[in-house]
């Protein structure tokens, strides 16, 4: 199915009928709620690896608005100042539970998109959310580690074999391509496992591609807009960073939900039916 006027009309219809803005706001709330427990877990865990947290932040710095990034960095520095083994064990529980709530909200949004009921037992539905959370944590760590180690490998090859500076530039660009591919894998797994419906990877890849490209473009555009045209601190004072972070999460949630809605439309077209309300 090609993206045509009929597809756009159906997507707009679903946008309002499925209350995508409300679902995006719900996801933004859960993203914010799980962010700092997750950061505590992630940064405390990475403290045991030979990776400076500044290198990790450089990955986030590509997309996040400056004020939101400042808020995240401030809390990360506090976390690193007080990190210990007990903090790691406590943060695991908090991060998994909070993030699984966000995953659970995503599951409900996708079930609504496909028009299916959540008839799985509570423990199974929550287990799927927890497993998706573990998978997300693992993939995020890999996504953060690869660019860092990729930089080390590129510098090593540059110094040992005497490659030109153009090689180092191409190598750095290749590292970010890998990060984008990992992001695509995350969205593909999310769209495949989350709905209470049997799907194939080929059935969800288009929504995953949309979510990957859409999230990167939206994040960069929003970051540019915030950094150059508005001053939320002047309007909201010390809450400016939180407001920017919430808006960023809101836009991210909307991109994720729209990707699921697109996959649901493709699914209806493939089965030769139209979802009724």
From TrEMBL:
The chain crosses the membrane at residues 27-51, 87-107, 128-161, 173-193, 205-226, 238-266. Pfam families: Virul_fac_BrkB. It is a multi-pass membrane protein. Keywords: Cell membrane, Membrane, Transmembrane, Transmembrane helix. The keyword Transmembrane helix applies. It is found in: Cell membrane. One of its GO terms (cellular component) is plasma membrane. It comes from the Bacteria. Its main location: membrane. InterPro entries: Virul_fac_BrkB. This is Uncharacterized protein.
